[in-house]
Amino acid sequence: xxxxxxxxxxxxxxxxxxxxxxxxxxxxxxxxxxxxxxxxxxxxxxxxxxxxxxxxxxxxxxxxxxxxxxxxxxxxxxxxxxxxxxxxxxxxxxxxxxxxxxxxxxxxxxxxxxxxxxxxxxxxxxxxxxxxxxxxxxxxxxxxxxxxxxxxxxxxxxxxxxxxxxxxxxxxxxxxxxxxxxxxxxxxxxxxxxxxxxxxxxxxxxxxxxxxxxxxxxxxxxxxxxxxxxxxxxxxxxxxxxxxxxxxxxxxxxxxxxxxxxxxxxxxxxxxxxxxxxxxxxxxxxxxxxxxxxxxxxxxxxxxxxxxxxxxxxxxxxxxxxxxxxxxxxxxxxxxxxxxxxxxxxxxxxxxxxxxxxxxxxxxxxxxxxxxxxxxxxxxxxxxxxxxxxxxxxxxxxxxxxxxxxxxxxxxxxxxxxxxxxxxxxxxxxxxxxxxxxxxxxxxxxxxxxxxxxxxxxxxxxxxxxxxxxxxxxxxxxxxxxxxxxxxxxxxxxxxxxxxxxxxxxxxxxxxxxxxxxxxxxxxxxxxxxxxxxxxxxxxxxxxxxxxxxxxxxxxxxxxxxxxxxxxxxxxxxxxxxxxxxxxxxxxxxxxxxxxxxxxxxxxxxxxxxxxxxxxxxxxxxxxxxxxxxxxxxxxxxxxxxxxxxxxxxxxxxxxxxxxxxxxxxxxxxxxxxxxxxxxx
Length: 681
Ligand code: 6R9
What we know:
32% of the residues lie in helices and 21% in strands. The chain has 21 helices and 31 strands. It has an eight-stranded mixed β-sheet, sandwiched between helices. Pfam families: ACAS_N, AMP-binding, AMP-binding_C.
């Protein structure tokens, strides 16, 4: 029996749970301090008077915090008996054992129960002005038909379905249909090549793939079904491919292919949800590791959903009725947590953005904000920097008065981009939240909010850990750094419900990568600085830290200074082997459109700025001006590729298939050769 939201607080904990939690959890109707107004989930936690105290309790007494929140926030068919059973030294992470629930019920049925006509999805299609809305009732119906269809075609609980689709309602319904019948999903970004797709299908051992005939993005048509055809040739496990129609153009169908919408129409609109254990797999998501084989990170049901929902609600200050606009693709973790699961678990209206920031012109985002009345906008620094280059007029053309919070994710946001986002896009009135997290963390871990409403936000800093998150910095000896105004390797000292549970089929790699470097801690792979005030600033991947004459310096720090130059659109800094200094600094710089300067003059100016803002040793030895930087399709600058070019190791460039535009690399190589020949004695 699936009860609507609110049912959970009525559950009586089992005697075991009562025993284990007795010392922590005091449910009391009396102590409704202002914390309850801010966070109703925490209303039952006694003796907490204020947000700072709540944050403190979420770490010092994390079991009672997460137990209360999980009971309140999720709809369980059977309550959990054990809050957590984790041992970071062995990479063992389990939350809410004994609990049973269904994620699709949590994301759909309970909202249909209370408000079936509320809009769940607004599909901002590539064709501007042709958005389509889907209510919670409609999304549930779509999900149920699809769940029944998958079941009829033999997809069982525990199977893994690969989804290779652009961001669209049927992709969301596919994810939720898997969740409904207890299958795991493996969404592969629809920009990946056939080889990359095939590798992920094989590793996930999927026998079912869901795709569309063609994709449409930035006015260009992509042949997704053809890519799947090529991929599955090297995937013997694949037995069936469901094909939805994004365009009207027919594609060749084989005996293996099934016309999805046509078949869905034959299915019942009711689909019995599978009763899942908290720790059953919800999805795999492959991350583009900097080298070697991609890692299929595994997330499970209850902990992931809870963490996505809670962070969505509190980091962005989401309120009932808001329209949430996260422009990430569903092929990345940001799309999973903040386009699909977080917003839907909270009953939000969530935007599915199919286009690009500059299609058909650089006003696309802000036109969309005006048309869809978006309240929270969540995007990537790379897009912000690109738009900044085109000038304020593209923003000012549109009414952005609905905006309340602006978010940034994916890489460090430099001060100039942050300030432009805040001042121009948000008219100086919306908090900008720079959110740090990873595929591995499931949801946002460090962000300026939640905090006291007036607490300061420092540009370009993720700043404050979320509830239950306990970050620490480690020195090179593996010792915890206790003071402030210090930098180190960013680790987490405590488990939290949203963290990944393993790497699919390779638990040892999971342990080696995340838990072995600092035993007892989760190692993020990032470096961070903790300011005098205790705020965190991410300094970049640790492999992006360079050592110049014995001085450690984050490449992101240098980039931040270079980007402050008004002529610069963006930059990437890498280290290279230097015979005297150990490492030297090599900067790639992209200028804003229409800038006409002497490169030599600008180089001098940039060197002066870095010397002045950081130190002389940080000043670039080489500055190469480039038209664009090589980026992944999710917009991350491929510093690995830049490092190889700078080391003249063209053999070692590795797999470039995940690049947005491989031609950018050729331009970079030529520019590098030109620069070297100019500087040869
Ligand atoms: C959510 C996402 C994770 C890596 C992470 C870090 C970088 C993400 C950041 C940030 C500085 C931020 N990163 N957010 N760096 N400031 N606000 O992007 O996940 O694709 O797994 O990437 O991205 O280096 O380790 P994912």
